[in-house]
C-alpha cells in the first residue's frame, strides 16, 4: 500500500492487475473466506474490535473460518457459486479496528498529558 502511494500507481494499471491476481491466487476466496477473516486476532485492536461486532456478524465469521478449516482438511473447495468475489468481499472488521486503534491512541495521548 505504501509503495503504491509512493509510486502513485492506480488500481487500474499493472499493479492493480497484479494485486487482483495475487488476491485470487491466495485461495481463501475458494474456501468462502473474506479478506477480513484472515486478520489475526492477536494484532493490536483486533480482539477489542471483535468484541464490538454484532453477534450475528461474529457468528458468520466463525462459521466461515470453521467451514474453511474443514474444507482445508478434506483438500476441497466450495462450489464456484459460493466463492467470494471482489464484489462481495465485505470489509466488516477493519473500520472497527481503525476506531479501536484511534481510541487507544487518544487514550494514550490523554494519559500522557495528565
3D architecture notes:
By secondary structure, the chain is mainly alpha-helical. 56% of the residues lie in helices and 0% in strands. The longest helix has 20 residues, at 94-113. The chain is globular.
**Share of residues in helices:** 55-70%
| Strand content bin | under 5%
Q: Per the principal axes of the C-alpha atoms, what is the gross shape?
A: globular
The profile of the biggest β sheet is: none
Show unreliable segments. Answer: 1-7
| Separation, N- and C-terminal Cα atoms | 36 Å
Q: Structural class of the helices, strands and pairings?
A: mainly alpha
Q: How many strand segments?
A: 0
User: What is the number of helical segments per DSSP (H or I, 4+ residues)?
Assistant: 5
* Gyration radius, in Å: 17 Å
What is the residue-averaged pLDDT? 87
SSE string: HHHHH
Q: What does this entry show, briefly?
A:
The protein has 114 residues and is mostly helical. It is built from five helices and no strands. Helix 3 crosses helix 5.
What tags apply to this protein structure?
single chain, 114 residues, mainly alpha, globular, disordered N terminus
Amino acid at each position: 500500500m505504501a509503495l503504491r502511494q509512493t509510486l502513485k500507481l492506480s488500481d487500474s494499471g499493472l499493479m492493480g492487475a497484479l494485486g487482483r491476481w495475487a488476491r485470487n491466487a491466495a485461495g481463501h476466496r475458494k474456501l468462502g473466506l473474506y479478506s477480513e477473516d484472515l486478520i489475526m486476532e492477536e494484532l493490536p485492536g483486533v480482539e477489542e474490535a471483535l468484541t464490538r461486532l454484532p453477534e450475528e456478524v461474529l457468528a458468520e465469521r466463525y462459521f466461515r473460518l470453521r467451514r474453511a478449516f474443514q474444507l482445508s482438511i478434506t483438500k476441497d473447495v466450495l462450489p464456484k457459486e459460493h466463492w467470494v468475489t471482489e464484489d462481495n468481499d465485505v470489509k466488516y472488521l477493519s473500520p472497527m479496528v481503525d476506531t479501536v486503534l484511534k481510541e487507544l491512541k487518544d487514550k494514550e495521548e490523554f494519559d500522557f498529558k495528565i
